[in-house]
Design a protein that fits this description.
It is a single chain. The protein has a domain at 51-131. It has helices spanning 16-27, 30-37, 53-66, 70-79, 81-87, 98-110, 113-128. 18% of the residues are buried. Helix content is 61%, strand content 0%. Helix 2 runs antiparallel to helix 7.
């Protein structure tokens, strides 16, 4: 068993990564971004269910913020509990592999969603007076 799963994490120090992810959690318009992606997301009719869209979106952002390749992101999800927590993968036994990460990025590219997501984030920040 891991210390984190036992509830023995007595540290209350926040790392720079934790502070950044906490700020991004508050700043990103998650509901609006998911609404942009949902109509294009694959739906499994048989076999394993796909990784939740919100987790894949959060993984995509982690890649962008920390400059990680698909392979590096896959490894980081195994190695860094903070990343799994941010992506909502804490209790999941199945971690997205590099191919799943690549396919999600291709989904965003195929439907020109990156530009739409940026516009949504900018509009949200402007509405809050952050731009």
């Amino acid at each position: 068993m891991m210390q984190k799963t036992l509830g023995l994490d007595f540290s209350n120090r926040k790392t720079r990564k934790r502070v950044l992810l906490d700020e991004m959690e508050r700043a990103a318009p998650w509901t609006e971004l998911l609404a942009l992606i949902s109509p294009h997301a694959p739906v499994a009719k048989t076999g394993r269910p796909p990784i939740p869209i919100e987790s894949m979106l959060r993984i995509h952002f982690l890649q962008q913020w920390f400059g990680l390749s698909d392979v590096a992101m896959e490894e980081a999800l195994f190695d860094v509990p903070l990343y799994r927590e941010f992506a909502g993968l804490g209790g999941m036994r199945r971690i997205p592999d590099r191919v799943s990460i690549l396919r999600f990025r291709h989904l965003l590219e195929a439907h020109d969603l990156a530009r739409q997501m940026l516009a949504t984030v900018n509009a949200n920040l402007a509405a809050k007076g952050s731009c």
